[in-house]
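Continuing the batch. This is chain 6 of the set; chains 1 through 5 are on the previous pages. Same settings as before, nothing changed between runs. Recording input and output for traceability.
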Amino acid sequence: MRLSFSSFVLLLLCIQCTSIAKRQEYEDSLRAYKKADLEKTITYLPTEERKGFIGILERAHLGFLKGETNYKALEKLAEDSKERLRFSASRSLKSFFYMETEEGYYASEAEIIYLHILLGLYYVKAGEYEKGKIQARYAGNLLSGEWSAEGQFDDPTLRLLLASLWLSTGSIEEARVDFRKANQLKPQSGILRTMANERFSEKEEFILVFGGPGAEPEMDPSVNLNFIRGLRNLKFRQTGKQSPLTIVDGGNKTQLVLEKDTLGWYERHLTRDNEISELIQDSKYFQLVSATALKEGTKGTVKITGAVLASATIVAFGAGLVYLGAEANSGDLSALGVIIIVSGFKLGAEWVATSYDDARRNMKKDLDISDEYRYVRFFPEYVWMGKSKSALVSPKLQMHPETLPYTLSPAMGKIKVRFGFFPDNQRP
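Output for chain 6:
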């Protein structure tokens, strides 16, 4: 069936028109987040996907760090995730699980697991310890990959978060299991090995501080030389400084240990996302490539044609001067004409090259989909962790020699756990 020209143009426009929250919609919110202003971070969140998976999880995550207690939207999302959870298999990932949302977003493994850990922490904050344990078990089952031993997604930072949830419910042995799992994934980590064998009491506090402003995607055409797939490849860039931190509480100091990083969450997100929607996305992307090539090709043709005509005019003018010089027996006039002819050829070549480079840059910009890549923002790039031998009274973060103006959350749970956030991207 043949498409009319107007239908074809409409199709191309629809490819580029979406109702998703793009990077520019996050600019104000991310700016506030980098200053650790969680109130404004939440206020400035984009409204496009407020009721979707991404919007709900982002608000719940930021709200938890801010000290909020309302978890109803997150609770409903967690129940929906259980009903919508799907298991799949592929050649590269072997097997994986994902959640397809009503708004067409494929939630990743790390996002789904963190969703249940976060809900469990909200339950603990509300004193509902049994509900917290249920969420911990569910998240642990997903991490353990009991449904499949091949290609399972496991991560030391998620294990660390899960251990903190178990501690807060008073389940010390279960917490040790996850500390050990984290240590198996990172055998070089001394702090994880220590925590796996540590004794915890109700008089002590476990401290976990989220760090970094959050990873951002950028186009990475070097990954794949294939024209259709290559320009669509992305990579995530992290910008946190990984600064050394200390907890200061009166005259007592607790050195925090940096555990990095969560880049594996994002890399798995990219790989898994391609596995799920590869054919669909390639089809759409091929249409976008075609549309962009058509647009830039037309513009480039006009520019190159203009450059050739202008160059030809200059060359013709130079040739005219050579002719007049020959007629008037003037060597100077003929020499000037030759110079103009040579300059005309050089300028024409430069103009054509410039037109080509402009078209190439514009095409690259149009095909860069990093601004539209969908994922849950504001997750930590890494965490600091530590343990205080006594209950903290008024703890503050210190990055030697400065005391930082960022506060930690109140201690929560049967075994006290305290969370915090430091953007770690600039001096306060």
